[in-house]
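Shipment paperwork, digital attachment
Item: protein structure file
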Amino acid sequence: MSVGVVACGALATHIADIAGAESLDITIYPLPPLLHNRPEKIAGEVDSLLTEIKDKHSKCAVAYADCGTYGALDTVIATHGVKRLGGNHCYDIFAGSKKIEEIMESDAGTYFLTDFLVKSFHRSVMVELGLDKRPELRDDYFKNYSRVIWLAQQPSKELEELAAQAAASIGLPLEIQNVGYGQLAQQVKELLSN
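Attachment content:
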């Protein structure tokens, strides 16, 4: 039987790409990426899905970092005896935790984007925060930010234009750092190891 991987919806496509390239026998169960707007719900959703799929696979794993659960996800992981991706968030996985720490030390007002967030920015951020209907609230939400850094996994001209639009929509300058998949491929393989 394949390994069942409960995945953050923002990472699911990347994990599928890695699985295909590495010929990994996994079945991906993505959870809605908008859960990141309510991180207190992530652990419960992961717990429910692991409970649902555990008898369908010889092994299960979780493709989430902590993602703002403040350890609640680790409690679920321990209960089910499975592994999760390392790090506090996907930025650590893509750019490395040391790099993220350096960026935040140099400017704590950094707003990060991934390819997924670049593609879904209007829906994930503007609509979810109500800025599509109340644009005057933009500066209240983003007044403590000074820049946007797009941690690009698969950069393209189209994504670069979308990243520029996202940064402009919140009134911040954009920087681009090409990080690729970073540690994601290695971490996915580690999830599947014994």
